[in-house]
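User: Hi! I'm working on a homework problem where we have to compare a predicted structure to a textbook description. Could you give me the structure for the chain below?
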Amino acid sequence: MLNSLTSLRFFFAFAVFLSHLTFVQTDLKWYNWLKNVVFFEGYVGVGFFFILSGFVLALNYKHKIIDQPHFSYKNFYIARMARIYPLHVLTFAVMIPLVIVQGLFGWDKALLNISLLHTYIPIKDYNFSINNVSWSISTEFFFYLMFPMYVIGLHRYKWLKYVLFIIAIPLLIYFEPFVTGNKDLEKGIYYVNPLVRSLDFIIGILLCDVYQKIKDTKISVAKGTLFEIGALVIFVLFFSFYDEVVRTFRYNIYYWIPMILITLVFALQRGMLSKILQNKPLIYLGEISFGFYMIHMIVIKYGNYFFPEGNDFIKIGAYFILAIMLSIICFEYFEKPLAKKIKTYFSK
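Assistant: Happy to help. Predicted structure tokens:
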């Protein structure tokens, strides 16, 4: 298992959590700088998740799909749905009462959301309806559906990966001026749209091929540590110049290089940083990171609804601790046991 990547999932989920602390009101200049600059770019975490998803799925299933004539697509899809859908339904149900009270409920939004179809509508009120972060599950579900076709297509037609990006990137650059300034289209197309974000996912699939070729290369701990620090430094450098790049591209294209390097270098697990990330508590945080990601926004929204006043910094600590506790409970008593039952029942 690539435990270092599992641990990294939590850190990127935490980045998403930070990006949702927009409710904090303070005169502290240092915090406002963090909120408006560092926290604001928290959506890079989602880009990492999408690339990592393609990478891990390719690592586990690519050769099975290509080499096994009787590969069970049914079991593959059941396993994928068992992983994401139960928690989506639970968080959907928990969020509904607050959405109704706030006057934000709509049957059309609810039906699209529960069906994981809401990211196909380039309108903010649909994309981020009910449990806001569920948009990424809708997009991820599309990846799961397309994964076998992506793998087979990229395997049979080697030229496809070149053509795909030669066409896609210029198209995204060309259409950028037409959507920038329109918040619905900016996020609806460049941030949440499953077809556009498939590029992140496909990068992960292709990155797996690179990993397979170099994974047995002998690399010393010192050199591995240097590579890991270097990947993080490159990420920081890209982050430092974010203001020079339009936000539309920062949703995906701009951060591809650092995300690729981080994923590949930490997958090799050769340096001291990856050794630290293989610590059991960090691995466990990575395992519950999906729950943390799905739950944290619910905690923030209910917390702010019931406690609109009070010290916002105390709220941050309370929300974080509560989200972690609920994530652990969901992981141990809901996600794991239910996923096991679903796979056992439907895979017969």
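For your comparison, note the following. The radius of gyration is 20 Å. Residues 34 and 40 are 8 Å apart (CA to CA). Good luck with the assignment!
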